[in-house]
Amino acid sequence: MNAPDPTEFRRGARAVLPLIPAIAGFGLVVGVAAGNAGFSLAQAVGLSVFVFAGASQLATIELVDAGAPLAVVVLTAVVINLRMMMYSASIAGYFDDIAERWRAGMAYLLTDQAYALSISHYGDDPPSDPRGYYLGVALPLWIVWQITTVVGLLAGASIPEKWGVTFAVPLVFLALLVPAMKDRPSTLAAGVGGSVAALGAGLPLNLGLLLGAVLGVTAALTIGGGEA
């Protein structure tokens, strides 16, 4: 199979560019948290490369710092990332004709941002080769994430609070959410899902996030007219 379309790759890279500052801030938060929890550079880098998921990494770091059993740490990370199964099921159809080795690599790079921007770009008329756009979005995210988590670990407490890097976490998701609310089902899904996730923030294993996702989709399908 030929290399991904470079034009589509550049288009994806341009689309993700506005999100890079917020992603960088999120990465700094995770890196600082890892340093405060006593993670070594190798441990922090290993976690960031292997997991590559901000919310799961933060939860893992907090649980390890609290001395939680390994089984609890792993189960928590898995539960938080269960939403990736829904993303995969939704976007997989666009990659039916792509070689398995490419699909495996792209699955590793799947994030909230890569999914949201790609699925919006593909719509009902996807490019003949969807790899270019997806990788144009996903690869810069991966690179920035790895660099900024290391910087956050090394810089630690020297990062000024006035930078407001912790605000990057909700900012990333708001930047994705608002443009996606194009119709009644998507708006309903966002409202129900966000409300349930916020109300369930104190549930163990971050189950509030998963519950919000499930109920948001359910609301869109049943009340929103079945167009989701």
UniProtKB/TrEMBL annotation:
GO annotation, cellular component aspect: plasma membrane
UniProt key word NAD: no
Transmembrane feature ranges: 12-34, 40-59, 66-86, 133-156, 163-181, 201-223
Transmembrane in keyword set: yes
Signal peptide from the UniProt entry: none
Main location: membrane
Organism expressing this protein natively: Salarchaeum japonicum
Pfam families: AzlC
Keywords of this entry: Cell membrane, Membrane, Transmembrane, Transmembrane helix, Transport
Membrane topology note: Multi-pass membrane protein
Family: Belongs to the AzlC family.
Swiss-Prot/TrEMBL GO biological process terms: L-valine transmembrane transport
Family matches, as InterPro entries: Brnchd-chn_aa_trnsp_permease (IPR011606)
Name of protein: AzlC family ABC transporter permease
Compartments in which it is found: Cell membrane
